[in-house]
Amino acid sequence: MQKATSNNSVVSRTDKESQIEYVLKTVEERKVDFIQLWFSDVLGTPKSFQITPAELENALEEGMTFDGSAIDGFSRVQESDVIALPDPTTFSLLPTDPTMARVFCDIYNLDLTPFEGCPRNTLRRALDRAHTLGYSFFAAPELEYFYFSKTEASHEPIPLDSGSYFELTVSDLGSQLRKRTVLALEDMGIPVEYSQHEDAPSQHEIDLRYTDALTMADNVMTTRLLTKEIAASSGISATFMPKPIAGVQGSGMHTHFSLFQGNKNAFYDPDAEYGLSVIAKQFIAGLLAHASEITAVTNQWVNSYKRLVVGYEAPVYVSWAQNNRSALVRVPKPKTNKPDSTRIEYRALDAAANPYLAFAVILGAGLLGIEREYKLGDQTFDNLFKMTPEQVTKQGIKSLPGNLDEAIREMDGSDLVRSVLGAHVFEWFVRNKRDEWSGYKTHVSQYELDRYLGHL
Q: Buried b vs exposed e over 206-224: b needs ≥16 C-beta within 10 Å?
C-alpha cells in the first residue's frame, strides 16, 4: 500500500480559498441546480439537506445552521442547533443527476468548536493523534453486498443469480449494475481497484483503491449510497446487511491498513521477519489485545453476529497470520518490487459499519500497541475454521464476542474506546445498542415459530 495524498493535514487559508473558488466556478460552469450537504449520524446513516448555488459561497465560508436534535446521536432539544461546514475538498458532481452535486460536511457547535457527536470529527481526532506521533493512516476496504429483486421487507429476499466466486456471465443484471456503479464511482474521482461476483448467490464486491482514512471513510459512504441508488433505478434492491440470507456467506468489509512516516511505510522493514517492522508488530498486537472491545463498533448490529460464526469464512478467533484467511488479522505478502505495499488486513469489519468510527477505533487500538510496546505472539498456521472450539481454546486463542450483548459489555468497560469516540458518542452508542439488544431479545422470530409452534 503506497503513500497517497491525505486531506487530513491543516489547510492554509490560501489553499481553502482556491478550493472554494474551484467549487463555485464548477457549479456555475456545469449549471448545477442543487448542492447536497452530506454528513452522517452516529450509526453511519447518511444524512443531507440541499442548498441552491445562491447559498453556496456563504455555506462554504460560514456553514449552514440546522437542528441537530433531529439526528440520532446528535444534540438534545435544549441545545439543538449545530453548523454543517462543507469540506470543499470533497465536492463532486453526482453522476446519477448532473444537475446535482454533493459535498461532505464537518459538524460544529455554534461557537465553532468541533461538535462531539459528529463521526467525521471523531475520525479526525484519531488521525490528529496519529499525526502527533508522526504517522499518517491509510485504508483500502473490500465492500461486499447483495442484489435482490425488490420485495417487501417482511418477505424472503430473492437473489438475482445463483453464481459464486468470480462468476463470469454475458448479460446478468447484477454484473451490469456493478459495472454501472464502478463507472459512476470513477466519475466521482473514487478509484476502484477491482470488482467481482462474490461467493454467495447475487453477492458482489467492490474494492476501493487505498487512500488516507478520512477520504476513504467518505468514499465508503458514497459507495454504499451510490450502489443502492443505481440498483433502485432498475427496480432492484442492494443491501449491505451483514447476513441477509441464512446458510451462505455474509457481507464483510475486509480492510487493508498501513501507517506512513512521511514517504516511508512504517510497517515495512526489509531486515525483519516477514518484512514486518517493530511498529507493524506492535500495531497488530494492539489490534489483537483490544479486538473484543472494538467489535461493537466494527460490527454494530444484531445481524452482524449472524455473519461472525464458524463455517462461513468470517473471522471468529483473535489471531494473526500471513496467508491464513481464518485469522482475524492477516498480513498479505507484498509484491517483491513494491515493499511499500506492506499492510495488514483486518477481517472482522462488516459492510454496514460506520466507517468513521470503525477506522477510528482500529487506529486507536493499533496506536496503543505502539505506544505501550505490546509484544506480538506467534502467528496461527492452522486453519481455525477446521478446528473444534476445544482445540482453539487449548492453543490459548480467544474468540470475538458472540453477539451484540457480549460486544457492548466489552465496549462499555473499555477506556480505549471511550477515549477514541469521546464521551458523547460513546455513551449514546452504548445506550442505543442496549436498546437494540433489548428489542431483539423479546422478538419471536419465524425460526422459533417454525421450530416450536406445532411441536410443543
A: bbbebbbbbbbbbbbbbbb
Look up the CATH number of the domain holding residue 279. 3.30.590.10
Q: How far is CA 413 from the centre of its chain?
A: 23
Is the CB of residue 192 less than 8 Å from the CB of residue 209?
A: yes
Distances (CA, A) of 248 to 66, 112, 205, 311: 43, 48, 15, 9
Q: Are 29 and 21 in contact (CB under 8 A)?
A: no
- The model's pTM is 0.93
Residue 49: phi, psi to the nearest 5?
A: -140, 160
> pLDDT by residue (tens digit) across 41-58?
999 999 999 999 999 999
Residue 7 domain flag? no
The C-alpha cell that represents 327 in the structure block = 485469522
DSSP assignment of 427-455: HHHHHHHHHHHHHHHH---HHHIIIIITT
From 78, 96, 115, the end of a domain falls on 115
Q: Write the DSSP symbol of residue 157.
A: P
pLDDT tens-digit map of 22-35: 999 999 999 999 99
Residues 102 and 132 both lie in one domain: no
Does residue 106 share a domain with residue 129? no
Q: Which 8-state DSSP code applies to residue 369?
A: H
